[in-house]
């Protein structure tokens, strides 16, 4: 268990595939993860794996995972309304019907390209909780905010706006994923422990005792995963490209287990 993580909390290791993988590729990855966990049950000790495929693959992955799977399944987005004239959108009940247990909310790509705001994240968090699913709230600051020393205040404001008015019980069902915008994507710069110390400490000080977990994402790979998990206050990793390959995801589970 990483230093600074409550002993009652698992270490979360998960990935969003973004707009990647065909159904055949989704089946191959999922079957490989299940075979790994069956062969090496120690990789499940104190670890909570999760996967967030594109919506096209959600039902396929759910069918492979089966009932009571150790791997939680998520959707990359969902609308805040339960139904209506929202062409191209998917509601939380529809995502749940397709097998989702988590809903990813507020990723920086959604904020930048699709107009996601603090207010829409608040609506989506509320809708996800209303239907008994787990919100995975993504937060993160741009490079200019980081360079100006404003990272902690920026991400705290994002969380405060998204959880405004929620009772303590509902806060306890939320996962926070801190993903600095300057650290994500192919051109992202991997964050150092010094970069993350103050923002993560601020998140833990205000929300650590209330939320389900605080995860980190942004240029995570098999070389830096152990160092990231050792940072006090990081309860797990939300991983991109490294985890899209079965070997990468398997190695991340091994690092977390160690």
UniProtKB/TrEMBL annotation:
It is found in: Cytoplasm. It holds the Pfam family TIM. The keyword Metal-binding does not apply. Its main location: cytoplasm. Keywords: Cytoplasm, Gluconeogenesis, Glycolysis, Isomerase. GO terms for molecular function: triose-phosphate isomerase activity. Its EC number is 5.3.1.1. Gene3D superfamilies: Aldolase class I. PROSITE patterns: TIM_2. It comes from the Bacteria. InterPro entries: Aldolase_TIM, TIM_sf, Triosephosphate_isomerase. It catalyses: D-glyceraldehyde 3-phosphate = dihydroxyacetone phosphate. Pathway: Carbohydrate biosynthesis; gluconeogenesis; Carbohydrate degradation; glycolysis; D-glyceraldehyde 3-phosphate from glycerone phosphate: step 1/1. Belongs to the triosephosphate isomerase family. NCBIfam families: PRK00042.2-1. Homodimer. This is Triosephosphate isomerase. It comes from Georgenia deserti. The lineage of its organism: Bacteria, Bacillati, Actinomycetota, Actinomycetes, Micrococcales.
């Amino acid at each position: 268990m990483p230093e600074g993580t409550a002993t009652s909390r698992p270490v979360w290791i998960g990935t969003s595939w973004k707009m990647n993988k065909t159904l055949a590729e989704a089946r191959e990855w999922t079957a490989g993860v299940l075979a790994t966990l069956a062969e090496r049950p120690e990789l499940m000790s104190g670890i909570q794996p999760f996967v967030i495929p594109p919506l096209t693959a959600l039902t396929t992955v759910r069918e492979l995972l089966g009932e009571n799977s150790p791997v939680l399944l998520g959707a990359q987005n969902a609308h805040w309304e339960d139904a209506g004239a929202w062409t191209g959108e998917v509601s939380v009940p529809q995502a749940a019907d397709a097998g989702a247990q988590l809903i990813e909310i507020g990723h920086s790509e959604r904020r930048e390209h699709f107009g996601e705001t603090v207010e829409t994240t608040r609506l989506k968090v509320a809708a996800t909780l209303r239907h008994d699913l787990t919100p995975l709230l993504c937060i993160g600051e741009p490079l200019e905010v980081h360079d100006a020393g404003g990272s902690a205040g920026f991400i705290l404001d994002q969380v405060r706006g998204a959880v405004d008015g929620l009772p303590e019980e509902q806060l306890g069902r939320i996962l926070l994923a801190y993903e600095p915008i300057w650290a994500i994507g192919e051109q992202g710069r991997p964050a150092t422990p010094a970069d993350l110390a103050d923002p993560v400490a601020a998140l833990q000080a205000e929300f650590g005792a209330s939320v389900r977990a605080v995860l980190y994402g942004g240029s995570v790979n098999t070389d830096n995963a152990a160092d990231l998990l050792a940072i006090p206050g990081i309860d797990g990793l939300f991983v991109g490209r490294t985890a899209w390959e079965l070997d990468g995801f398997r190695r991340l589970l091994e690092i977390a287990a160690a």
